Amino acid sequence: MSEPIRPKPQPGILDIAPYLPGKSGRPGSQAVKLSANESPLGASPKALAAMIEASAHLEIYPEGSSRLLREALGEVHGVDPTSIVCGNGSDDLLHLLAQVYLGDGDEAVMNRYGFSVYPIVTRAAGAKIVLVEERDYRADVDALLAAVTKRTKVVWLANPNNPTGTYLSDAEVRRLHAGLRPDILLVIDSAYAEYVTAADYSVGLDLVREQQNVVMVRTFSKMGLAAIRIGWLVGPDHVVDALHRIRGPFNVNLPAQMAGAAAARDEEFTQRLREHNAHWRDWLTAELSSNRLRVIPSQANFIMILFDTPDMAAKAFETLADSGYIVREIGPSYGIGNGLRISIGTEEAMRMVAKVLKSMDKTQ
Ligand SMILES: *Cc1c(COP(=O)(O)O)cnc(C)c1O
Fold it and tell me: Is pLDDT above 70 for 1?
């Protein structure tokens, strides 16, 4: 049989497994969503006020380069606003990076349980994704370096990583960078930077400043503004220049720019979220660590827990859902069938999740 003649996607596009977002619970249910690492304390009140202010003139195009947002970020993080590119969520920036630096015949390297958007953007650009084994759910610098070939153009590193919550120290990231050729772009995705408490961690800004082949990608999504989609990136001038050429000319809307700028300056709210998260992340980790359950130490705003078997993980998922708590199954998108990822939520949610899982533990 001959194939019908019709528009055909580029090679590789139909091999992409679509991104699986965290579930929200059954329609109309009052379930608490602990599956997408959203803020349990809402958004910064200052960001909400800025959003309302912005809504007065929805007929006007936004300033295309997100200048007011870049200026706020520059001020708060001590970087030159001209080194920043903003995006419609950091996913937007990851796609742009892949389009600029990857093409047919190229390879991008990532750790096996790295963020599931990297294979999507890599394949969408026509390149091949190379998955590298980890050491106990942590990126392995030596293995990543060993996977580099002459075709490698990009290394994707989420630090801390989603869905495992593990991180690489500043020294390890520097060792990774030092082992890469200067024509390979190291993308440090610090989506959870605000939540890190480890003293030997670095967001990656120093490396960006010192080198010509490193970018740091950030997001507001995990800090209370997931709905309005704001990502940002800091990179060397030549990378920034290339990204500006292909990004959507108005890729961040004005309400998002204004809310993002206000949120960036609201360091008190950031601090409140960070402290809430650190407290309940440590509490939940200690509560759940038992002889039957393994909690991987996390630096992010979620924890990954490992059961003996995928069946036990599935049963825990169902039992939590029946109790009104939707967590993330990480078999389907990440291949960790015996794992669940639980976002750090309110005190009430954390106490209930611990209670449900501990009562299951006893009956097994
Ligand atoms: C959530 C997440 C992002 C995506 O953030 P958006 O700005 O919402 O697109 C990027 N990287 C990692 C590692 C994440 O977990």
Answer: no
Residue type, 130: V
Sequence letter at residue 287: E
**Model pLDDT, residue 30:** 84
Q: Please give the distance, rounded to the nearest whole angstrom, from the Cα atom of residue 284 to the centre of ligand 1.
A: 23
pLDDT value of residue 26: 67
Give the binding-site residues of ligand 1, using a 6 Å CB cut-off: 89-91, 115, 158, 162, 189, 191, 219, 221, 226, 231
CA 169 to chain centre: 18
Specify whether 52 is located in the same domain as 193.
yes
- Residue 303, classed as helix, strand or coil, is strand
**Structural domain boundaries, residue 228:** 45-266
Name 306's Cβ contacts closer than 8 Å, sequence gap at least 6. Answer: 293, 294, 295, 296, 313, 336, 338, 339
How far apart are the CA of 119 and the centre of ligand 1, in A? 14
Tell me: do 74 and 38 sit in the same domain: no
CATH number assigned to the domain comprising residue 319: 3.90.1150.10
Q: What would the pLDDT profile of 229-239 be if each residue is shown by its tens digit?
A: 999 999 999 99
Task: Tell me how many degrees the CA angle 112-334-356 measures, rounded to the nearest 5.
Answer: 130
pLDDT value of residue 27: 67
